[in-house]
């Protein structure tokens, strides 16, 4: 039996980020967005300006591995695709009608509000949808996870197991 959503996706969403590394907060937003859409594309941004811990290829591999159970559980399509273009151009290329963004705190809102406004001006047919981070994930940021790990702290409750292993190997390596 085939799933109707995999044959003819109607509601395509894009969840962009650098995912360096992917955190439990990202996983939470992906799982929640997946319930709203027929297809979700997780766009992994190159964004070399942030000085990534992992290469683009490694981040795509980690995100793909960590989110596979979500797609299986929901019976829907989730793709992981790298990109290095304007977000709106990437969304149009994918046929996405929704950009999904996670919010952790009020400080996120200022930046996201500006981005949503710019994106709307460029593409009024693409909606930005904000999902509040679950209470247990509101403080998790990839930047902080890397910093804690580099200073010898325990990040096991912030990232999924495979990512934990890879982060620790990279830092020790």
Task: Report on the architecture of this protein.
Residues 1-6 have low confidence and may be disordered. Helix 2 (24-34) links the parallel strand 1 (12-17) and strand 2 (39-45). Helix content is 46%, strand content 18%. It has one domain (4-172): HUPs (Rossmann fold). The protein is globular and about 45 Å long. It has helices at 4-7, 24-34, 56-74, 87-94, 106-122, 142-150, 161-172, and strands spanning 12-17, 39-45, 77-83, 98-103, 127-132. The protein has a five-stranded parallel beta sheet with strand order 3-2-1-4-5, sandwiched between helices. It has 173 residues and is an alpha/beta fold. 32% of the residues are buried.
- Provide the residue-averaged pLDDT: 90
CATH superfamily: HUPs
Q: Label the CATH architecture.
A: 3-Layer(aba) Sandwich
- How far the N terminus sits from the C terminus, by CA atoms, comes to 46 Å
SS content category: alpha/beta
Q: Count up the helices.
A: 7
Work out the count of structural domains: 1
Weakly predicted, low-confidence segments: 1-6
Q: In what range is the share of β-strand residues?
A: 15-25%
Q: What shape does the CA trace take?
A: globular
CATH top level assignment: Alpha Beta
Task: Give a quick account of the main beta sheet: strands, pairing sense, barrel closure.
Answer: 5 strands, parallel
Q: Would you report the number of β strands?
A: 5
Order of neighbouring strands in the sheet with most strands: 3-2-1-4-5
